Structures are given as C-alpha cells and as structure tokens.
TrEMBL record:
InterPro entries: Cys_Synth/Cystath_Beta-Synth (IPR050214), Thr_synthase-like (IPR004450), TrpB-like_PALP (IPR001926), TrpB-like_PALP_sf (IPR036052). This is Threonine synthase. Its EC number is 4.2.3.1. Keywords: Lyase, Pyridoxal phosphate. PANTHER family: CYSTATHIONINE BETA-SYNTHASE (PTHR10314). Residues 89-396 form the Tryptophan synthase beta chain-like PALP domain. It comes from the Bacteria. It comes from Archangium minus.
C-alpha cells in the first residue's frame, strides 16, 4: 500500500500564525503565549474518502498486533501520521467498551444512554489515550538526538500513573509531582511501582503545576501536562471511537467531566476532524460537568464566558478535577461555543449518588464520572437535554482506583454525602438459619 503524504505540525491555537515541527521541544506559542495544537494537513486526509476511513478503522479494530492493537494507533494517520511504528509506545490503550445504561436511560426518558468506559485501560484512566502519544513522541525525539533526559508532570493522580507506566515501558526516566494526601492510595502507588521519581509536595495540583512548569523550563526535562498538545491528539480518539461504536451516528449529547479541560477540548477536536473529513455529518452537543467545589468553568459559563477567574479549588471527592485554574480554559470555551455546549456542576452528594446509581447497572464508576452523570440528571430535569435524546457519557477512570470513595459511600461514611443506594455487607454468624433469614426476601 503506498502511503499518501500526511503531515502534522504545531500551530498556535490562538491563530497568530506560529508553526513549528513536531520534533521541537515547545509547549506554548513563543509569540503570543497561546497553547499550541497539532495541526493536520486536512486536505491530504480528505484525499481518502470518508467511506474508506470508516472501513479502515473498522478493519483495524480486530487486530491484535501493533500498531493497530492500540485503539489510538489504529487511527495513526489522524494522530501523528509521521511517527514511525518502531517509536510507538503502547500498552494496548483504547478500544474500550461502550456500556449501555438502559435502566437509567428509561428512568430519565432518554432514547439511549451509553458510557464510554475510557478507564478500562492499562493504568485505569483515559490519560493513557494521550500519554501513549506523548511518550511515543519523546521516544522519537530522543532517537533523533533531541536531548531529553526525563519526562515530568504535575498530576491529580491519573496523569502521573499513565506517564510513569508508558515511560517505564519505553525505558525513559519519569518524574511526577503529586499534591500530598490529595490523590488516592492506588494512584500514589502506581508511579511508585513503575519506577518514577515521585515527589509528594505539600500543596495542591495548581501548586504542583507551577513548580513543574518552572523546572521544565531549562534542562532536558520534558513537560507532559495537558498544555502539551500531543496528549490532546490521543485523547481526541475517544470521540472517534465513540462514533465508530455508534455506527458513525454521533449522539445528540456527550457529557464529560472537566478539570484542566484538556479532555473536553480533545473531544471537540476529534468531532471537528470527523466533520471536516465527512466521516460524520451531525454535530453533537457537549456538556462539561464540574464539581461544585472546583467550578471555574461553571462560573465563567454563568458569566457568558467573558473571563476565567482562577479560584482556590476546594477538596472534593472528584479529586482528579480539583483544579481552580484550568490550563485549557480558552480552548475548552472555543469548543463549547462551536458545539452549542453547556456547563453543569454537581455537589458531593449528587456526584456520589449518580455514580452509585450507574454502578447498579453493572459498571464501576469513578467520582468524576459521577460528576458527569449527576450533571446529566440535572440537565434532563431542566429540559436542556430533551427527553428522547441519545446521550453518551465519557467515563474517565475505573472505579477500582477509588476504593475509599466506594467503600465510604456504601458505609454511609462520606462527608456531605447522603447515600441513597448504600448497600453495605451483612454481618452474620455462619449459621444456615441466619443465612436463610437474610435471603428471605429475594
Ligand atoms: C484528568 C481527569 C479528568 C479531567 O480531565 P481534564 O482534561 O483535566 O479536564 C477527569 N476524570 C479523571 C478520572 C481524570 O483523571
Ligand atoms: Zn501565537
């Protein structure tokens, strides 16, 4: 098969015209300080008919070999078309289930409700989708002589887990900055196990972010946070895979939790590309869901998106989105405007109960997915999401990463949460009579 000359490079996302090759170590536009994006040669991609793209992607889905065994690299022409296969660092990310929640859909009066289970993934969160792209690029840059000694990130837990796993696979040193006592024990132990240098700092995510940006300014430490637009290229595949799951018929609404807002931006970027290539023809609407305790986007939305007022994020069960100064604010606002989007928020009780409600249908949701599901319930109640709509919710992490949240909920022990679906284990003596009694109502 002859390869058409697909090409991608960095471009300033603020449209000032700055461009740079993907081999360059650059995170922000040197002219205007805007974030960068990976800009594809869409004309070249258009030379392949939409029908052919769909056919290719479907055919690759069955592969068990790299690059196509990866849900992300199965779409490599749309991700990083020039990255050689030998530099791909994959742990088998992507190709995750689309889990229907028919009972919740019926109760809410929706035509369908599906969870895109992005946390059914090597390190248990959607961060793997972006990290495979970033670490592969680093491997490629190092192979081409770019002096990168290690890769570093600040994290609310899942980014560091993904970074350390992909770096471990590639044999590249990694450094992670974590806010002390603000990530789950599972999230802390993941980078420890994968051999990262773990710095546990007495601050919050925003504090870690500030420091990692400073240390990665000089030296050969490469910055892996989501201001790095390489990650967005992998995460945008969530939108593509979702449409593929739905027979290329996008849902009416996609609900997604947002913290730093890279993921919401990536979702929109994925839809934009499919629309540009004619692979889908309908523009879904996007709802970003925030924890009420860390809701700068919600506040900006109420103010008509005129400005972002960074805030001190308060402690929330949705720890991965406990962010007061989201780096991708501007790009997320652009996406929300272009997808007729809305923002909704959830209290601690709302997010915990919504997560538990979905669990009753056989999934195991993280608190952030709970935020999205609670926002969905509220948007349906307000009539913003109409009855009869087809809705997809992006589930961002596996619930197994948050045992304290799950156990605490069912014990009724979470602060500020009234557990409506609490289902604690029944303590019994090991006697037949007692057991029969306990099962009498089944
Ligand atoms: C990172 C993360 C989010 C938020 O993604 P952003 O790109 O920061 O908005 C949501 N849920 C989980 C589980 C995460 O790890
Ligand atoms: Zn610029």
């Amino acid at each position: 098969m002859s390869k058409p000359a697909f090409h991608a490079e960095y471009a300033c996302s603020e449209g000032c015209g700055f461009r740079a090759p993907l081999l360059e170590v650059v995170y922000r536009c040197p002219r205007c300080q805007g974030l960068l994006e990976v800009a594809h040669d869409v004309e070249a991609l258009r030379s392949v008919p939409a029908e052919e793209w769909r056919r290719r992607f479907e055919q690759r889905f069955g592969s068990s070999r790299l690059p196509y065994a990866s849900g992300v690299w199965g779409k490599h022409e749309w991700v990083l078309p020039e990255l050689p296969v030998e530099d791909m660092v994959s742990l088998g990310e992507g190709r995750v289930p689309l889990k229907p929640l028919p009972r919740m859909a019926a109760e809410l009066g929706l035509a369908s409700l599906d969870l895109k289970e992005c946390g059914v993934s090597p390190t248990g969160s959607f961060k793997d989708w972006g990290m495979t792209v970033l670490v592969s690029s680093v491997k490629h840059m190092r192979a081409r002589g770019v002096p990168i000694r290690a890769v570093a990130c600040a994290s609310t837990g899942d980014t560091s887990a993904a970074l350390s796993a992909y770096c471990a696979a590639a044999g590249i040193p990694s450094v992670v900055f974590l806010p002390k006592d603000k990530v789950s024990l599972s999230q802390l132990v993941q980078p420890v196990a994968n051999g990262a240098r773990v710095l546990s700092l007495d601050t919050d995510f925003d504090g870690c972010m500030k420091l990692v940006q400073q240390v990665t300014q000089d030296s050969g430490l490469y910055l892996a946070n989501s201001m790095n637009s390489l990650r967005i290229e992998g995460q945008k595949v969530v939108a593509i895979e979702l449409c593929q799951d739905l027979g290329w018929e996008p849902p009416d609404w996609v609900v997604i939790p947002g913290g730093n807002l890279g993921n919401a931006s990536a979702l929109g970027k994925g839809f934009e590309l499919m629309l540009a290539l004619g692979v889908i023809s309908k523009r879904p609407r996007i709802a970003v869901a925030q924890a009420q305790r860390a809701n700068p986007l919600m506040r900006a939305f109420r103010g008509g998106f005129k400005e972002l007022l960074p805030m001190q994020a308060e402690r929330t069960l949705a720890s991965a989105i406990q962010i007061g100064n989201p780096v991708s604010f501007r790009r997320a606002v652009r996406i929300l405007k272009s997808f007729d989007g809305v923002v909704e928020e959830a209290t601690e009780s709302e997010l915990a109960n919504a997560a538990a409600r979905a669990d009753r249908e056989g999934t195991f949701t993280c608190p952030h997915t709970g935020v999205a599901l609670a926002a969905l319930e509220k948007l349906v109640a307000q009539g913003v999401i109409a009855r009869g709509a087809r809705v997809a919710v992006v589930s961002t992490a596996h619930g197994l990463k948050f045992p304290d949240f799950k156990v605490g909920y069912h014990r009724g022990a979470l602060a500020d949460v009234t557990s409506r679906y609490s289902n604690p284990p029944v303590d019994l003596p090991a006697e037949l009579g007692a057991v029969r009694n306990a099962l009498a109502d089944l």
